[in-house]
Design goal:
globular; 5 helices; Maltoporin, Chain A; 22-stranded antiparallel β-barrel; four-stranded mixed β-sheet; mainly beta
Length: 664
């Protein structure tokens, strides 16, 4: 109790100091003062004058950074000029990001940022959390890319403020906000190999003053390259936004996805002459599959309740439910039966108040979440409550210097934890700046980790990890022509929680938990953008060493590089615009992780070493009016490679599509 009182007192003191600082700088702003009896300054509204039209829509209502960068590869104005179909494909071109894939559309994937997998990366939609509290992750296949206006990728030095269990970073998907009295319709169609088809439709319009309605759908299907790998998913998204005034906006949204996925367990190397030949390759099972239904409902609002219009109040109320059935044939000739049925729901509320002064900004808030697991074969039924208080302060005492700090206190399962971090940026010249940051962030064990019935090898229960990271970087920015950044980082993890395979009771092994006392990651991230005439080049590279209890480990590649070179030109008096590009991906050898579909787990393995590889894609995008026509030739050299054993990645293939917006 004494420790808890000290921790709460420290958080309270931090909030008081930052509030006083912002109040001091805010009070320095000029406020009109009228002398007693002086009515010349008090203007009366002229009732004969027609009221001027004032915009009601508040910009960046779904953004956590309150900004939008249309030059970023994570912005819709950029990825519409590519052949990306899913959010994971867009993110993998950012430094530090690695996606562990199973080689087929719609199959489960694992997102990793700077060596930290999806359990330690907070995923948000317009600021509301999406991470499944059972596994701690979110399947990016469920998020339609056409719904997204911008993906905000937040660094580790600040991500602990924005989300629970976010030591690796945070990603916020900012959705498109439409503001038009005219009806807007948008259609996207994309076709790839093995009957892969993506169809997306959208309709939006103001139906009353300040009321915008949006409806969208997406259908994604694929027969799969190998037996038992078909995918069929429907997504329905709706939103009603009410812009009451330029000081208060309110919305309610519903995101529903239902999918059926066949899971073959990868290729069996002991029975297959070649892993990459669709005719002779033998899959591990032709019986396993899963059906998943998920609904995410959000009620959100943003308001300017204080006289200062830069001070924003934000609130979210959300509810999610997940229903997953996993089927598997136990014997080679058995028909599939339900092995596991998971029913999970969580709801919560978040409130945040922001203040802004001349030399400082402050944000304070609180979060509550109720998590209910109604059914799960491995865990059973359980429920828990999560509570957090947080604060984030930024000061800029000098024009060239910015410093920010955050603190977050969390309460879960009868315990509490305090996370904190800071980041400083100094501009040495107009084109050169340096940054330095440090964070100490806790990650509570997921429900799956904490209540796992198979005991760990040492009998220790997984409770929480402690991540400490220090980073320093330099950025060279010479206008739009060149932008280069290089960041070095070192991270230590106390009591890292990992899974490893344990025996085989059916088609796939089960798993046990290991708690690694000390894990260390050291690495470099590099990001390059250059433009010359109509040519643009981009590159993102990550180099990382990984040790567990002073033993070298390779769950992720030591080197991961993505690069792109493109040429863009306008023709026929700007009636036609075309872009031609080449993309290169390269990864070094690594062990990878074994996928256990029943529990949606990626587990440590060392029996198969995945070799280094490089692949090359060619693509072109042409605009005709409001239509974007896309043609892509992927893996031109037909390179054979895997990211997860033993799931071959796609060979040489062609994709084409159209993205078309209609007005009226």
């Amino acid at each position: 109790m004494a420790h808890r009182r000290r921790s709460i007192s420290a958080t309270t003191l931090f909030l008081i100091l930052l509030t006083l600082l912002v109040a001091r700088t805010h009070g320095a702003q000029a406020i009109p003062v009228y002398a007693p009896g002086d009515t010349t300054m008090a203007s009366q509204q002229d009732s004969t004058r027609i009221e001027e039209h004032r915009p009601r829509f508040i910009l960046n209502i779904g953004s956590l950074t309150h900004s939008s960068d249309s030059s970023s590869l994570l912005h819709s104005s950029q990825f519409i000029w590519t052949y990306s179909q899913f959010a994971g494909e867009v993110l993998q071109y950012s430094p530090g990001v690695f996606t562990r894939e199973l080689g087929e559309p719609g199959q489960p994937m694992q997102l990793t940022i700077n060596g930290i997998d999806g359990r330690g990366v907070a995923i948000k939609l317009d600021g509301r959390p999406l991470n499944d509290p059972l596994t701690g992750t979110y399947d990016l296949n469920l998020l339609p890319l056409e719904y997204v206006d911008q993906l905000e990728l937040l660094s580790e030095s600040q991500s602990g403020y924005f989300g629970n269990n976010a030591p690796g970073g945070a990603i916020n998907a900012v959705t498109h906000q439409y503001n038009s009295n005219r009806p807007i319709t948008k259609i996207r169609y994309m076709q790839g190999p093995f009957e892969q088809i993506l169809t997306d439709g959208l309709y939006t319009q103001h139906v009353a003053r300040g009321v915008n309605v949006m409806f969208g759908f997406q259908r994604s299907v694929s027969d799969g390259r190998y037996p038992n790998s078909a995918y069929d998913a429907w997504n329905i998204r709706t939103r009603v936004r009410y812009d009451h005034s330029d000081r208060w906006n309110f919305w309610i949204s519903d995101l529903y996805t239902r999918s059926a996925t066949e899971i073959n367990g990868g290729i069996d190397p002991t029975r297959s002459p070649s892993l990459f030949d669709e005719v002779t390759a033998v899959v591990r099972t032709e019986e396993a599959s899963q059906t998943t239904a998920r609904r995410d409902i959000t009620v959100g609002g943003i308001a300017k309740l204080l006289p200062d219009t830069t001070a924003r109040t934000r609130a979210w109320l959300y509810y999610s439910n997940i229903d997953r059935e996993y089927r598997e044939g136990i014997e080679p000739f058995d028909s599939a039966r339900i092995v596991d049925n998971t029913l999970l729901s969580f709801w919560g509320a978040q409130l945040e108040q922001q203040f802004e002064g001349e030399f400082a900004r402050l944000a304070v808030g609180g979060e509550y979440e109720r998590r209910s697991l109604e059914k799960n074969l491995q865990i059973g039924a359980t429920a828990e409550n999560y509570l957090a208080f947080k604060a984030n302060g930024t000061v800029f005492p000098l024009r060239l210097l910015t410093m920010s700090v955050f603190v977050r206190e969390e309460f879960l399962r009868g315990g509490n934890a305090i996370s904190f971090g800071g980041l400083a940026a100094l501009s040495l010249t107009d084109w050169l700046s340096i940054t330095a940051g440090y964070s100490s962030v806790n990650r509570f064990a997921t429900m799956q980790e904490y209540y796992w019935r198979t005991p760990s090898a040492d009998g220790e229960r997984a409770e929480k990890e402690l991540h400490r990271q220090a980073e320093a970087g330099v950025r060279f920015h010479a206008g739009p022509a060149i932008d280069f950044s290089l960041t070095g980082f070192r991270r230590t993890i106390d009591d890292a929680i990992i899974f490893q395979p344990l025996g085989t009771t059916g088609t796939f092994p089960t798993a046990t938990i290991l708690v690694i006392q000390e894990t260390e990651l050291r690495g470099l991230r590099a990001d390059l953008l250059f433009r010359a005439w109509n040519v643009e080049g981009r590159a993102a590279a990550t180099f990382m060493d990984y040790t567990q209890d002073e033993m070298e480990a390779r769950p992720v590649p030591r080197m991961n590089i993505h690069a792109e070179l493109s040429y863009r030109e306008q023709f026929f008096d700007e009636a036609l615009e075309a872009k031609v590009g080449i993309r290169v991906r390269s990864q070094s050898a690594h062990d990878g992780l074994q996928f256990i579909p029943q529990h949606l787990l990626f587990t440590r393995q060392s029996t198969i070493r995945l070799g280094a590889w490089s692949s090359l894609d060619l693509y072109t995008v042409v605009t005709l009016g409001d239509a974007f026509l896309t043609l892509a030739w992927e893996n031109v050299a037909d390179v054979h490679y895997m990211i997860t054993p033993s799931y071959p990645m796609p060979g040489r293939n062609i994709k084409f599509g159209v993205n078309w917006m209609f007005l009226d």
